[in-house]
Write a structure and sequence with these properties.
Helix content: 10-25%
Length: 423
Amino acid sequence: MTVRKGKRMGISIQENMAINVCPGPIRPIRQISAYFPRLSPTSSFSDSLLPNPASGPSGASGDGGMLSPRSAAAAGGGGTLSAMSSMDTSIEIDSCDSDDNASLGTLEFELLYETATSSLHCTVIKAKGLKPMDFNGLADPYVKLHLLPGACKANKLKTKTVRNTLNPVWNETLTYCGITVEDMFKKTLRVSVCDEDKLTHNEFIGESRMALRRVKPDQPKHYNICLEHPPHLSSPTATSSALRGISCYLREWEREQQRNLEERGRLLLCLQFLPPSQMPEGDGQMEAKERAKGGLCVGVRRCAHLAAMDVNGFSDPYVKIYLKPDLKKKSKHKTAVIKKTLNPEFNEEFFYEIKFSELSTKTLDVTVWDYDLGRSNDFIGGVSLGCHSQGDALQHWIDCLENKGEKIEHWHTLTNDLPGSTI
């Protein structure tokens, strides 16, 4: 402060009070919103997110900048990723983040992943103390499930609606088919409770999100959680540098998952090679020479999470299979069309008379189509199985050849590439 000569330096009342009452740097009052939105206040990890006075205003990063996903991964055991892993294991099942979330109500449900059928079962039991949404002080609640990442209608399941209650009981099981072990490690289940309104739009009550990697295979996991508001990632200037790093990493991770999610659905196939000794007898249409060859039986069981191709948000799917190269052009088979669904169940089998030695030179092309009356059918996705395939398709083909006479089932991920288009 510069003071002109001959004038006396004076201190205002506000400055005097600030000096006497608040010696040292003024720190803002910490609020609940300053903590990580998913962390329980009773958890031991909450103390690690408190600002460290010795580290200065730059926070845990030390350089005052935002933590990128690469820098977070390079931090190792003391970085943001290790903090996130410890945070994930410290979340209590029966916990509420704040009084505001507690006013939305609680939800009780159970998750079970069956490895034998590659299915995820969610049993919605009941809710308690839901927030009133109607004029009569009650609500018409239902529960909606959504697998993240993923935005198609096939990823969304819904329970029935219970009328005029704040303590609904459902006892309803919703099942996702075609969920692989890889999906359990990278996907998150969003469970939301909504109020149904016939005249207006349905109203959102609260939600909760569970990482499926915490569900052990073939072991039911029980949840009794408080509903929360949708997660809100604060602006970088409103949180500490450590929380900014976590938010930045989560945003980048979600974008990467959306880019990698190019699949068009799942297909459950069953392959079985029948040796000549196991060929069916008594069929007049099958000659003795054909029975001596043996054959390949292809079973099209069902599809799951197909891409929506019609305006109504659904598809009319059917499956076509080819065994190539096909010189006589007799290997084409097609299932029936199932109307208006993204999770069709076919349970149809097709047979090819072929020698076992010829299978090494063959490729089985399986494609899923959307039937459209009066115009060209839309291609949904496909997969190729053979000795020149890769990944799960190659493994399924090898398992079929190594286990003669046995039915080998496997879920396959459909892709945008039309089988045989690049050959």
